[in-house]
Amino acid sequence: MAISLSLDQKEKAKHGEQLFPLQRYITNLSSTYPAVTAHWHKEAEFTMITDGNCTYQIQLCPYPVNAGDLIFVPPLVLHSIHSNTDPAMASETFVFHMNYLGMGNADICAVKYLTPLAMQKIIPPYIIKKEHPVYADALSIFHKISQLYHAKPIGYELRIKSLLLELIALLLPFCQEDSAFSQLSNEHTSKLKAVLEFIEQHYADPLSVADLASVCCFSEYHFMRFFKKYMGESAMEYVRNVRLAKAAELFEQGAQSSLEVSLSCGFNNLSYFHREFKEKYGMTPGTFQRKINV
Question: Which of 50, 83, 101, 103 could form a disulfide with 29 if both were Cys (CB 3.0 to 4.6 A apart)?
């Protein structure tokens, strides 16, 4: 089954099963759901943009990508997606745990390559465009994984595992050592992760700029500039969007009462909730409910 990621923070999702920790996702971004908010997870992901274009922000750096481009995001790497086109950007993603490839084994492959990749000691090229030397081989690997995942012939789990190992082997000559990246960037990434995690845990509570600034030990002024620089919106705009996304998710899960949804998502004024919801999604909560129930 293809699972939409447009509303979910992927670090909360279950990626596959315990014995086969790999899951396919289809992401569709549009004017209604224009972004996948910044998140990270313990799994790696391998993506192909199938339609439109968008901007990936990976470890605080923006990367414009177009249809046909491939993206490899290692575990624990902070990333978000913002659509640049209307009506839609579409992608296909395989999210997998590195243990599936043998990261937990006591062998040279795990020690020399898989664990350093998972721990960000070696940094692969995140974006693989047509001009990249490994693009043709990486694209072939992606298509083979997709075909195997759909057809599920006998032994397909082994074949997908071998293809992902082949992908990593292809990327290794183009990896950089962690020392090539600035300590300041790593510190900023850690601070931003802490703030985003705090918002995810407390979005239903009253939140202020002072509350969020205290998480990373910044002054309010410094924090506002810091957050805007890396997220492209103010901290309170981000909180508002998280709350609205959570509200939309509750409606999709069958919630009926706008009042209960608004209160559970941190909106204490129902009129304000209706106005903000309509501004973000182009329709009132009631119309949104009727549309998803058709």
Answer: 83
Instruction: Determine the average pLDDT of the residues in 255-273.
Output: 91
| pLDDT band, very low/low/confident/very high, at 164 (cuts 50, 70, 90) | very high
Topology at the third CATH level for domain 183-292: Arc Repressor Mutant, subunit A (1.10.10)
pLDDT tens digit string along 11-44? Answer: 555 566 778 999 999 998 887 778 888 888 889 9
Token readout for 60 is 């605080």
Residue extents of the structural domains in the chain: 3-180, 183-292
Question: Which residues neighbour 63 within 8 Å (Cβ) at sequence distance 6 or greater?
Answer: 55, 56, 57, 71, 126, 127
d(CA 48, CA 249) in angstroms, rounded, equals: 25
Instruction: Specify the pairing of strand 3-4 against strand 22-29.
Output: parallel
Write down the pLDDT at residue 6: 40
CA distances from 240 to 152, 154, 197, 252, 283 (A): 42, 47, 15, 18, 17
Query: Domain 3-180 belongs to what topology?
Result: Jelly Rolls (2.60.120)
